[in-house]
Protein 1
Amino acid sequence: MPPHEQLLAELRAITGSAHVLTDPRDMAGYLSEPRDLYHDGQAICVARPGSREEVSAILALCQSTRTAVVPQGGNTGLVGGQTPLADGASIVLSLTRMNALRELDLVSNTMTVEAGMTLLQAQETASRAGRLFPLSLASEGSCTIGGNLATNAGGTAVIAFGTARDLVNGLEVVLADGRVLSNLSKLRKDNTGYDLKHLFMGSEGTLGIITAAVLKLFPKPQAVETAFVALASPDAALDLLTRAKAHFGNAIRAFELLPRIAVEIVLRHRDSQRDPFGEPHAWYVLLELTSQSDQGLDELLFAFLESAAEDGLIEDATVATSLDQAKKLWDLRESLPDLAKLEGGSIKHDISVPVASVPAFIAESTRAVLEAIPGARPVPFGHVGDGNIHYNVSQPIGADKAAFLARWDELNTLVHGIAAKYEGSISAEHGIGQLKRHLLAEVKDPVALETMRAIKTALDPLGILNPGKVL
Ligand code: FAD
Ligand code: ZN
């Protein structure tokens, strides 16, 4: 009998043969990831269960045969956590067929959804019910709730609502041996011992398979105002943030920083985009405010921007007057990661530092990077309101892409060292996966690392869940 034939037969008996993919052409899309750093993944098959019971049976089977399982949602993760290793010893467990809405409770303000529902579907489901599900990422069209929770995703609305883990009341998880840890609780308060759901969120598929979640819903805003603000420096951006917080508090839905080069990159590669201002500025902030009242938010925003301009804090500002204009301003921010690929190689960092240290972190990193690679083009952008900067570095114009990317580890060491100096994190929101696994021992407190290993051993003693990732 060919290798794995028995396993494949049993998997087919669980899900039906149509949902066990073995043809290389059918599997290809599950084996590499959007950053294309990991494209030599191999798997025994891709199994696509349709229910919690099927996930449970698959895990029991994999535990008894000691087969590794790589959970996968929308395959948009940026650290290679969701793709199999090159050894071909694992199955990919794709959750995307499990995308049902199980329950909507508009009094408790919760929505119980299966893990394979895309973030966009979750947002739209909430919106149709007159509610808001605030998690917001550029990958929302294809990433899934399961992947969002497994990576504790961040995105642009963290400043107001926190990261993915802050948006969850309850979780259903299939453990490594197939048992179901069912805690689809709607409770806002429950102090009956350890809060186990938080173990699985951010665990990147190494502790259990998330099959469903009870998500928190919020009132849908009645007014949204989007502004694009030009300013001289990250310091000015932080002054503006402090002022905006005093003025608007939790009404600030997004506060995203962009350097001039980011806008230039988008303008260069997007015919439909225009510079929002008549002249270039060194830095920009995309500011979004929301309100539960449908009146007056625009006037408050105008007055706020006017006084910031009078005080010399900002150089210029434009406020979207239609949904289309707001979308265009957002496109300047959201299309950047994709369009930056057209500029050649880009070495990435996902740093967070205390908010107050952002300007110093950016300045020091830029000095260090330019000293190491003259002509390199730093593009530090992102969620400045959370102290989370994607300190990406595009290759020098005309340089050899492969030679530039060969310096990935060297630049990481430089930039991560500067983040460490400010007591920052080397992975603010994307996780560890395969990409940063070798760095964990350097940045994590040894006792924290031992505790993580003890938890892993307790929940997955045979190490079948996403081996080679995180730990
Ligand atoms: P996958 O990529 O399929 O998986 C990610 C990890 O979760 C893997 O380790 C996988 O094994 C595990 N996993 C997946 N599903 C499950 C499950 N059901 N149970 C257990 N483990 C599971 N991230 C941010 O935080 N903020 C951003 O702003 C952001 N923007 C992005 C923009 C773009 C264009 C792209 C491509 C990615 C972006 N990301 C961002 C990365 C982010 O991690 C993902 O988009 C998303 O959270 C992952 O969801 P997914 O369903 O695609 O998960
Ligand atoms: Zn981000």
Protein 2
Amino acid sequence: MTTPVDSFADLGLSASLLKTLAEIGYESPSPIQAECIPILLEGKDLIGQAQTGTGKTAAFALPLMEQIDVKLTKPQALVLTPTRELAIQVAEALQSYAKNLPGFHVLPIYGGQSYTIQLKQLSRGAHIIVGTPGRVMDHLERKTLNLDNLKTMVLDEADEMLRMGFIDDVEWILERTPAQHQTALFSATMPEQIRRVAQKYLVEPREVKIKSATATVAAIRQVYWQVSGMHKLDALTRILEVENDFDAAIIFVRTKNATVELADKLAARGYAAAALNGDLNQQMRERVIEQLKSGALDIVIATDVAARGIDVPRVSHVVNYDIPYDTEAYVHRIGRTGRAGRTGNAILFVAPREIRMLRTIERATRSPIAPLTLPSRADVTNKRVAGFKEKVAEVLNAEGLDFFANIVAQIAEEQDVGAEEVAAALCQMAQEGKPLQIPGEDPAPTRAPTPFATDSRRPASFAERERKPRSDERGDKPRFEERGERPRFEDKPKRAAPPSGDMVRYRIDVGRDHGVQVKDIVGAIANEAGIESRFIGRIGLYDESSTVELPAGMPAEAANALKRTRVRGVPINLRPDEGRPDGDGERKFDGERKFKKKPYADR
Ligand code: ADP
Ligand code: MG
């Protein structure tokens, strides 16, 4: 990596925050963090452009933490995010960075959550508010959210807010924030409208853009597995087991803590594995690398910095267990295999939200990365059986089996069974604790889609989440990685092939006269009620109102959220449609939408 900064300490962060980062296991700043943190600490406005997964949250969250006056229980920073999932994620991240800041309060506010609870939490006083534009507007209008003490405003995923039709709301909010404040805008892309907003509301912003340098990667087979249906750890061991010509591997994760956790788990599964991270001193590090060279270790789990420059020819595989921050890091990582003229293998785990990064890596390295089909249980069994047979064959070729042959004959006679049965019993003994078959079942094909967020996907209340232990997989990383993808409208054309099932028509109080477009309605409904956009049926745009078809059997919670949802600042007042105004001006519908699958999750 060309990151000029290796350590958070070089960025001007306070000792207490550095301690927190060390505890969380962040070893070094990502490129966007290294560039943005000093600028934001200086109080300057900023436009940050970098892809999903590059660490933008900490890039703004860490400087925010430095500014907060805990004694002042008034909102001092406001972060706008396009979806409630993101609002929760960002709030969780902020909370984790506030580990050593007693009394710190961050409050996520988003549609679909009860006003009573939000009002209570707001009145209790929070230092940072993270919210979706609609709900924030609402609270500003009701004067339940006061921004008089605001120091910093962050627009996170600005392009996504634009895509979802929230940009007017964002401007509305920007117009009502105190004149004196710092503004940071983050976006993966920089469409014209976002530029315009930046020009209008940011003051002499500094721009940071993380670009992807191109580089060629030779003689390395590159594949990726899209994380789904199975824990990364289980997938990893399955893959490693059936990979041909596996000799040794370096597995890359993002945090120091994750190196240790994964090393322990792999060791528990019988692998000779160890962690390699910045906490180890030079001597210990060299020892780990020596052991990998000599074969005392087969797997090393490393962070980017710790693995820099490792040259161990027997490394046949590099696994990107956590996706790298940028293409340069990717190229560096996979360069640890395929050394000394051997062919190497690079395996990349990609969460649904990281698909864009995958494509960027492909472009930057100018080489396609093929999808990897996860080995089935049968594949693993076959591989284990083949290995077992080989071992038996080796022994058969050895001399001096007469003694044992005699014992087998005796057992067969005494038990009145054939030699085959005796052999089977001996096989079982030989494999005790090392089963040839993996227990359990292959993951079922992805579950039938449901229109409303199911319980597991629906964000629990923030307080509830804080108490829930994280899945053991995730270590210190926030918990959202395996959570379902949030609606992305560019992927799912709104008029796509409809599912089948009963639809109910609702009326809403916004129409063409409000400047509303179909995408605004879809965006608001998807976001506020947690309905995936593809389950939203036909939309009829009239002048003063509109109709929208939604799957029958809507849970009360979602219905309530939708009564108060706003589109372009106007409460939509969603209710079942009774008749319609005389047909004029009705939008032409295209396509019926029916659900093939059961439309609602069992709740
Ligand atoms: P983005 O907002 O750019 O999509 P996130 O801020 O959500 O990216 O970060 C992606 C992941 O990387 C998160 O799991 C986060 O905890 C992790 N992460 C961010 N910065 C660091 C760091 N410096 N060291 C280790 N992990 C990090
Ligand atoms: Mg982000």
Protein 3
Amino acid sequence: MKFEIKDRDAAGRICKLSTKHGTIITPTILPVINPNKMLITPKEMKNLFGTEIVITNSYIIFKDKKLKKIALAKGVHKLIEFNGSIMTDSGTFQSYVYGDIKIDPIEIVEFQRDIGSDIGTILDVFSTPDQKKTEVEKIVKETINRAKKSVKLKGDMALACTVQGSIYSDIRQKCAKQLSKIDSDFFPIGGVVPLMENQRYSDLVRCIIYSKKGLNPSKPVHLFGAGHPLIFPLAVALGCDFFDSSAYVKYANDERFLFPWGTEKLENLNELPCSCPICSKYSANELRKIDKKIKTIEIAKHNLYVTYLELKKIRNAIVNGNLWELVEKRANSNPYLLEALKELRKKENKKFLEQFEPTCKKKALFYTGINTIHRPDLFRIQQRLFTRYFEKYDTTIVFPEGKKPFSQFYSEKISRIFKRNCEINILIDSSLGPVPLELDEMYPFAQSIFPELIDLETEKYIIKIFDDFIKNKNTICWIGPETLKEFKSNKNDCIDFDILRVSSTADMQFGRGAGKSILNGNIRILKSKKTGKIRNIFCNEKHVLSMRAEDGMFTLKLDGAKLLHKSFKYPKLRVVVDDDAALFIKDGKSVFSKFVIECDPELRPFDECLIVDKNDELIAVGRCLLNRIEMLSFNYGMAVKTREASN
Ligand code: GUN
Ligand code: ZN
């Protein structure tokens, strides 16, 4: 089974999974098919919604003589008449719901293999939120034992090994880690249905994060039993690739409509607030009056339309780099979900999520409320200000937030400072926190839209960061031109704001000292005639950097890479590749994960990087698609897109 990342945002990803029966683009849903009662057949689903994968239950097939016979003779694909990919579950959930039912953990895995399931599931032991820790530890131990025995029997079926551990973060993480050590192909996060039924989304967030922390990042992750689209954006942003839904039928049976913002009962709908083919065909009144069975099917279809539509929106948000915005918008429509986002304000969770967060985005960052300021990319930029940026002078002058770009808004005042060559740093007290003036065009400082009045919590948080940033610094506030009087002008050393911008941006993007290394020579800066913005930077007439108009960050040129390679010690900024791959990369081919042997742990998705061989010879410059742990785990797909090779 091949699984590779194609695009990403937050800790979410768009991946391509290939099974024996085709390829699937994730994140997606596996509609639950009950082989005894197919309200909508898989074939019909494929036609209506483009369904590429479904899930059915091997235990239901196993215990029904007739179904078992057909499945063993003709295969599960024939049984449910679907030629796409089929995942099977094992009966764990039935054991949990109905109590004492007899299933042999070995027999059920062999059965799934024998009926030709593409992805089978071990008979994990369901852990519930109310169990004691010692009980959960036993359950997890048994689940891991079963997984170890099951992988030996899987044949050419991919095997899903479920992470259990109830609400105990440490047990979840340990279970995930243990399961990642054995030959499993797919990781459902199990035991979470009771949490979702009771809208315990904060607990759910912890379950996902701690499972993810222990899991091999190169394998698909499935949130078992999650079928309500309300939870999808958040779960995807935390790294879930698959969901499964019987919700579409269960809710339809009760005449309930799924929506991204929640659930509505038909009896409470005056009009159908949806434009899917079903809701376009009937008025609410007409639908109420039709035959019960047809009504259930029609509502189930609406439920699937809405579910697939939300997944399309999520995948679009990943491509556009605004998944957190979608997460926050959805959370703003449900108080339990909103509460759950508080989990993401914890520093340990921010640190974990930051590793997967792309460093540049196509779209501006939109404020949606109190959670925006806690996004991992804002956490990162604040951290980098503390660790990578450094002030050139002893004194800093602080301006209040004006209009963007700040350097234009304050151009008159700034020119006074520069005319006198005052040795002063200029800092903006912005709603994103401190912004050194020379970084005002860099993402997200320029590419963020905040309302004039922000909420008090954000304001308090920002004040704290600002105060920390100027602590022990000599700062003064601008009160008019007289502020500058006490500063002697420096006649010898002329301050060049463009060079300052290039230098500080390079430090923020590549690490402290990068600006100095790249700008060590005769510098020429080329600007756009149309916008006046910096475009290309030459050092001793060699093109070293290009500044991107969309995010004010650099594309690293090979000559710039050579300078960074010389001044930054191994492994900083490096992706180390196998000798076999080096030849191809020198030809301009991209770097595939399986050829990466080491990588700078500080590199993040979409960062510029130096591609080197085992002897640390620079062979190319490129853009990472993955972070270090991913590069070292994935066997398929691209790790770095090569831009310029040294040959
Ligand atoms: N379906 C819903 N939850 C679970 C679970 O925890 N394990 C399995 N195998 N199936 C499920
Ligand atoms: Zn509809």
